[in-house]
Amino acid sequence: MTSLHLILWIASGIVLQVAIYLGVGFWRHWQEYQALRGRAVEFNLPVKATSPTAESDLAKAPWPGFRTFRVERKVTEDVAQSVCSFYLLPEDGQALPRFLPGQFLTFRLDLPTTAGTEQVIRCYSLSDAPRPDSYRVSIKRILPPAGNQLPAGRSSNFFHDQVGVGSLLQVRAPAGHFHIDRSDAPVVLIGGGIGITPMLSMLNWCVVEQPGREVWLFYGVRDGSELVMRSHLAALAEAHPNFHLLFCFSQPLPEEVVGRDYHHQGRIDLALLRLKLALKPYHFYICGPAPLMESLVPALGDWGVPDAHIHFEAFGPASVLRKQAETSAATMPRNAVEDGDIVVTFAKSGKQFPWQPTAGSLLAFAEANGIPVDSGCRAGGCGTCQTTIRAGEVAYRQPPDYDPEPGTCLLCVCTPKTSVTLEV
């Protein structure tokens, strides 16, 4: 054998070894990819598309006004049977825009009354990752408070009692500024009660689109009967090592055992977060009832979490102030408020009040002063609190998703720029 033949044999051997190495590597990656797709199907999660289609590109644009959807499925999600999921298909069969996980849908409902029907607007968070053909909302039945004359939640009870498979609903396109970012920063999801719904959307999106991202979910309820989609969450935690799940029970049942049925007894607070979380640049996403929001959001600021890393959505008239807003109000010249430089006049009642910057929004300010205002999303998305401005100017903290008519404002996301007179 000549030296040339020897060199060719050696080169061929090297090429063969490289080809085998690359083939084995490709096969392993393919097996991992197929396993991930299998888990997504097993947990009923959408599978990430490999490339966009022309149809999906067209579907990105939200539709104007309201669109008719049909209820395909209605599923009870908890032992207490207080939460139902509604799976919605567009009646026109066209593709749907890919919403941002954490956003909500706005519904126009015709609620029955003794005189016929009354049209109301209500918003409910999407509770699943984006899909091209359907949406899901999960709605809790709101009962009258114990020992209180307040009525039960009209819209939630309407959904539970009168909306079923085949029902048609009028729905506005997904909206809302509360949604998860697409970075690879570690994330902490905190859901209290039915505040878990946007967290489910964020979580289901993360495990498919960003399986390597570190995700924590702190889920607070009174006891195990109130847990929504318990088996789904437990299965995700078992299948995804980067997902950490903690059930927090404030009033566990006598038969429930810590470490078996739940992970922590008590409410979600800063002490628990400091105990469980390492020192990392987490982004916090929080949604829940007023007591949770009003205690936890300021506490995170005191802990040193940057304002830009705290994202929240409150249910109901919660007064949630960031540390930055509190500081601004504290350093404002005293005579700016005491001298009544800015006065808010409510025309229908004839009442006037000096503006208090700590109120947050004109909606919260009106409610704090006993002025009733119809509201829905409290995030500038539904238009329910749209009010005519008789005089003066307002400023928006962020651009609203709903485009108010000229000469009006959305009270939930604006503050007075000058003294202002409102048609409420």
Automatic annotation (TrEMBL):
Ranges for domain 2Fe-2S ferredoxin-type: 340-424
InterPro entries for this protein: 2Fe-2S_ferredoxin-like_sf, 2Fe-2S_ferredoxin-type, 2Fe2S_fd_BS, Beta-grasp_dom_sf, Cbr1-like_FAD-bd_dom, FAD-bd_FR_type, FNR_nucleotide-bd, MRET
Spans traversing the lipid bilayer: 6-27
Record Pfam families: FAD_binding_6, Fer2, NAD_binding_1
Name of this protein: 2Fe-2S iron-sulfur cluster binding domain-containing protein
PROSITE patterns with a match to the protein in the record: 2FE2S_FER_1 (PS00197), 2FE2S_FER_2 (PS51085), FAD_FR (PS51384)
Domain FAD-binding FR-type: 64-181
Protein keywords: 2Fe-2S, FAD, Flavoprotein, Iron, Iron-sulfur, Membrane, Metal-binding, Oxidoreductase, Transmembrane, Transmembrane helix
Cofactor: FAD
